[in-house]
Amino acid sequence: MKIHSSVLVHLGFGKYVRSDQVTALIPVEEERGPGRRTFVYVQGQTDPVVAARTEDTIVRDLVQEPREVIQARQQQEILRDLLQDLDKVNTTVRRISRDEGGLDLDQLERRIHRVLEDEAK
């Protein structure tokens, strides 16, 4: 399980907390109903936040990878695949592509390397 510090978790009715600051989730048992499903304990606060969502739903949101992280990983995989394919292009095809087609594969390769290096930092 990995909790991401920059992710906000929706508690319902416009309430959000940072995922890395949630310390406990306790289901509301008395007077449970719409708008009162889960007590969410947040680091640094003595009183819990009352969430409109169930504890199972909140836990799922706490531990799943954000869509942006998944998309970034997929984009990096595509770039790595493209680099592998570019490595197979010989110098004659590169020259023709650059001179006749205006596509500089060497420059494209360097840019992809820079993007992947920046992402790794």
Short description:
The protein has 121 residues and is of the alpha+beta class. Helix content is 47%, strand content 19%.
Question: Which helices and strands, and how do they pair?
Answer:
Layout: E1 8-12, E2 15-18, E3 22-27, E4 38-42, E5 49-51, H1 55-63, H2 67-87, H3 91-101, H4 105-120
Antiparallel strand pairs: 1-2, 3-4, 4-5
Helix pairs in contact: 2-4
How would you describe what is shown here?
The chain is an alpha+beta fold. Helix content is 47%, strand content 19%. The protein has four helices and five strands. The chain has a three-stranded antiparallel sheet, with helices on one face.
What are the secondary-structure elements, in order, as H or E? EEEEEHHHH
Alpha carbon gap, first and last residue:
22 Å
Fraction of helical residues: 40-55%
Main sheet properties? 3 strands, antiparallel
Strand order of the largest sheet: 3-4-5
Structure summary, number of beta strands: 5
* Poorly predicted segments: none
What class do helices, strands and sheet pairing give?
alpha+beta
Please report the number of helical segments: 4
- The average pLDDT is 90
Q: How does the overall form come out from the CA principal axes?
A: rod-shaped
Rg calculated over all Cα atoms:
24 Å
Key traits:
121 residues, alpha+beta, three-stranded antiparallel sheet, 4 helices, 5 strands
